[in-house]
Amino acid sequence: MSVHAPTHRAVLGLRENAAQFTLLVAVNALVGGMVGQQQTVLPLLATEEFGLTGYTFIFTYVAAFGITKAAANYFAGTWSDRFGRKPVLLVGWLFAIPVPLMLIAAPNWWWVVAANVLLGINQGLTWSTTVVMKIDLVGPARRGMAMGLNEAAGYGAVAVSSLLAGYLADQYGLRPAPFLLGLSYTAIALLLSGFLIRETRDHARLEASQHTPRADGRHDHLHSDLTNRQIAVQTSFTEPALSSASQAGLVNNLNFGLAWGLFPLLFATADLTAGQIGVLFALYPGVWGAGQLITGALSDRIGRKHLITSGMSLQAAALMLIAASDSFTGWAAGTVLLGAGTAMVYPTLLAVIGDVAHPSWRGRAVGIYRVWRDSGYAVGAILGGIIADLMGLHAAVWGAAVVSAASALAVAVRMYETHPRPRGVSTEKAPRTS
Fold first, then answer.
1. The pTM is what?
2. H and E: helices and strands count for the chain
3. How buried is 403 (Cβ within 10 angstroms: 0-12 exposed, 13-18 middle, 19+ buried)?
4. Alpha helix locations (H) across 108-179?
5. Which residues form the Major facilitator superfamily (MFS) profile domain (predicted)?
6. E strand or H helix at 312, and its extent?
7. Does residue 176 have a cis bond before it (omega within 30 degrees)?
8. pLDDT tens digit sequence for 185-220
9. Angle at Cα 14 formed by Cα 13 and Cα 18, nearest 5°?
């Protein structure tokens, strides 16, 4: 995307764009709700209605979701820079329409897998686009807060929908009641996205026109005219902060993918009801979602790196507690801590990408980062399934704990601080340039 003056008046800032920002928060809550409607229910559907027993096979739907979501993230970033953000958002929601219908009607497990392929495309296109649009609107001073609000809405909705789906499954059966939530979410999102959401690419152009390099010269090689290949290489491997964020994001979602497929089965070993399992599963994204309301803004005040290393370390400790427990109480404590650790990491990693990427290729950088991050769903599901089949459910959780600790160490060694701010100094009056 070439840098030029915006075609209409655009102003950067959270307060200045409050109405559009709020609409985008609502849309991203609906995006998260599409995932939450099935997380509690599908593992139980696999065992109780389709008679599946091998953990690796059961987790195929999580792997299918992760692979397609990762690929969709790449196209979301590229297309949003090329064609604009709103068209990508609308196309993403069109892919959601068949998902709940297929889950309701599924005569075999492969229908469930196919529905999750479509859901992965929906999630990649819509969630990536709402991230980019919010970063566009707020400018550099409140980037962490913007990501905290975005991710809080999405994962808070995952928690609420998981809880609702568990309740509906308890009261009315595994099908169709829980999946009626998804039909409602899709209809509301299409109305909001089609009629009320506005294009934000001009805000990115405005920020690009005001862009000033870092005083330390660290980003001088990350100029505005990088090719797609150069952006992919920098984000994946060579730029220390971008590539560190990509690996940490992958490990974070490895934990989520493993939790998605494995936790309901692990919790069911204690003869818990579907409602109790729904509560346990809701605690993780619930704390994750609510915590980001604090951690996103906190990263604007104290910086990004220490929140990421501390959050990955806390996730490792939480997984150890879950692996060592065999009761509701221990699992509840572990999922709360896992949610807290994830809250420290999730919006902060996105803020790192926004800090480092030039506004002219920010959408593509976000897309590449999310390719790596959401590949973690598939890695977690497949690796967790294999370990669970060979060594048991608890061993799979122990494996994820070790990987999380290694990720924290890698970030501590390689990542530099991307958003230096004096500790305790508010960014309220920070200039709208980076």
1. 0.81
2. 17, 0
3. buried
4. 109-138, 143-172
5. 21-423
6. helix 305-324
7. yes
8. 999 999 999 999 999 999 988 888 876 666 555 665
9. 120
